[in-house]
Hints:
Elements: E1 3-10, H1 13-26, E2 31-39, H2 45-54, E3 60-63, H3 72-79, E4 89-93, E5 97-99, H4 104-109, E6 117-126, E7 131-132, H5 143-152, H6 156-170, E8 181-183, E9 190-194, H7 195-200, H8 213-223, E10 227-238, H9 249-270
Parallel strand pairs: 1-2, 1-4, 2-3, 6-10
Antiparallel strand pairs: 4-9, 5-10, 6-7, 6-9, 8-10
Helix pairs in contact: 5-9, 8-9
Amino acid sequence: MKCLNIIIYYDNKEEVEAYITNVVAISDEMLDIVVVVNKDTKNLAIELEDKLKSMGISICKFINYGENVGYLNAMLFTIRKIDIKKYDYVILSNTDIEYSMNRFFYELSCKTYSANIGAIAPSIYSPNTQRYQNPHYLKRIKKSHFKRLYFLFKFPTLGKLYLQLSSFKRKKKPVLKEKSCMVYSPHGAYMIFTNKFISLISDYTYGALLYSEESCIGELLIKNGMKCYYDSTLEVIHYESTVTGSIDYKKRFDLWRKSIKVPIWIHAITN
């Protein structure tokens, strides 16, 4: 088995370095890593690349598209630049992730998923909330919900209220790990995609910068006749550091509204 792990560099040299050194230690040569540089104010990414090479870590490739391409597009652009055929899985993950299982990739290599599984959502534990973030969305989100959010985020006051209510709901996430099951989409902190699904979406470009990526994935799975499987036997820890918290609310809601249009559009053509 061979996996490609795509991660984002966004002025977070220390976090990226820590993630890479940790994951390399447990990957047993089953992993290649692509670091997409979305923001590098102090030009430290090249320094990090050289440092990793000096440490004998040769499985990393740094790519800079010359702009911030966002999270999902970082993966979509990258799979068009490399030979994707040699990978069984493509993983898009945050760098604030720790592997609670030293045999994570070995366990993944032993799995045999149904042919219609396009995405795998592992168990994700958040020490911050002391809860599990998967299963994320069990059922398909209705188009009316997307439209309601599109309206709410037009008004910052309503948008802030919605976020507060969402934060309260997150606190009600399960404390105990739930059993494996089919879900609508994976949590964006750690998403595993099969080669078959990646091949089907290789020409797709996400029409937004941030937000709603999980819903977009859910809709692309449906569009291509595939499903997402929450596998509770695989687990990572998510420490929830974030780069989006510094974005002011108006800009954040503008980005959100733009991103919401994407799943609405896919939803419309798959009904």
